[in-house]
Amino acid sequence: MNVVLFCGVSVQRHHFHPPMGGQPSVPPPPPSPLFDDPWMNVSWGDNNRDLHYVDSFRPVNDEVRHIRVLLYGPVGAGKSSFITSVSNALRRRMTCEALASAANSSGQSFSKKYLTHRIRKGGKGNYYCLVLNDTMGLEEGYGRGIHTHDIKLAMMGHVKEGYKFNPLAPLSNGDPDYNSSPSLNDRVHVMVCVHNANAPEMKSSILLKLREIREAASRKGVPQLAVLTNVDEACIDTKTSLRNVYRSKYLKKKISEFSSSFGIPINCILPVKNYSHEIQTCSDVDTLILRAVRLIDLGHDFTNKVLR
Ligand SMILES: Nc1nc2c(ncn2[C@@H]2O[C@H](COP(=O)(O)OP(=O)(O)OP(=O)(O)O)[C@@H](O)[C@H]2O)c(=O)[nH]1
Ligand SMILES: *[C@@H]1O[C@H](CO)[C@@H](O)[C@H](O)[C@H]1NC(C)=O
Ligand SMILES: *[C@@H]1O[C@H](CO)[C@@H](O)[C@H](O)[C@H]1NC(C)=O
Ligand SMILES: *[C@@H]1O[C@H](CO)[C@@H](O)[C@H](O)[C@H]1NC(C)=O
Ligand SMILES: *[C@@H]1O[C@H](CO)[C@@H](O)[C@H](O)[C@H]1NC(C)=O
Ligand SMILES: [Mg+2]
User: Fold this and answer.
1) For ligand 4, what atom is nearest to the CA of residue 110?
2) CB of 156 closer than 6 A to ligand 5?
3) Domains detected in the chain
4) Tell me: the pLDDT tens digits for 231-260?
5) Which atom, in ligand 2's list, is nearest to the CA of 40?
6) What single-letter DSSP state applies at residue 131?
């Protein structure tokens, strides 16, 4: 008998020895760790539509130059990695095109020109009308990690660029880094809570901080999403293929638990794996990351609603 770990559920496998002369008895198969049908349909590897969408997106509201997304969550949840992944997935658009054109010698020079133009335009970081703001991680207890008050101030656009978060004292009106009259462009248009799928059960003090931030965002009508990182390491099925993300029973349970403890609908939780260094053209990793383009739509709706 050996024990195989399937998504945290131990499944006992018996080696049956057929009785002499008799028919081998067939043991009931262990329950599958995967759903037959995914609970969310994803167009795996088909990223061009999303890439084009982010590429050509411009806010309608003149007051807004870009949709600002603020990431918050526990220390080490993967906030910074997520930002790198989004930026890589978007910039890889160039890589994908470059690879495609290199393979087609007749189309090469045309593609190169297009490529240069795109890189120049995007080089300063103002190309995509989406900015992601990273924050310091939330920690257990008082006076450690980022102050929840600072996250709420940043949400309302009161925190100036380059401010160094201080766990002991939140920013206050009158400080040089305090923007007392933020524009709609300074404000955050989508709040994203980042959580590691494999983290041990969240400490209640951290959960309280997360909820406090979420409730502040709800009061101000700011749209919210959550990003569940490290799904590649969550279970053997997602490790084998990311395409099992919406088929894994274990991950579905994880997402449901996070949904009820944090108080955010299941369909607002985006499972992701961070970008790895390998050059794989337009991969499944990007497919999950690019579902984050929903950030733009949510933020866009918000910036239009606030104006009216
Ligand atoms: N396997 C795997 N590792 C990840 C993933 N996302 C992040 N990591 C790793 O997790 C660690 C923490 O990630 P960070 O992005 O630094 O986390 P953070 O939320 O910015 O952390 P703080 O800034 O300290 O609050 C790093 O070693 C990452 O390489 C993922 O999706 N899969
Ligand atoms: C996914 O697509 C299939 C085939 O189009 C459909 O039968 C199924 O209901 C869809 N699932 C969800 C969750 O939308
Ligand atoms: C993603 O996670 C891996 C560990 O699995 C790490 O080595 C790598 O640096 C991370 N990538 C980014 C872009 O943070
Ligand atoms: C290669 O480039 C030519 C000229 O631009 C184009 O007509 C053709 O469709 C391309 N082939 C492929 C496989 O992309
Ligand atoms: C938010 O992100 C933008 C773009 O990455 C950066 O320039 C800016 O300094 C950030 N602002 C804050 C308050 O962190
Ligand atoms: Mg970080």
Assistant:
1) 5
2) no
3) 63-306 (3.40.50.300)
4) 999 999 999 999 999 999 999 999 999 999
5) 13
6) E
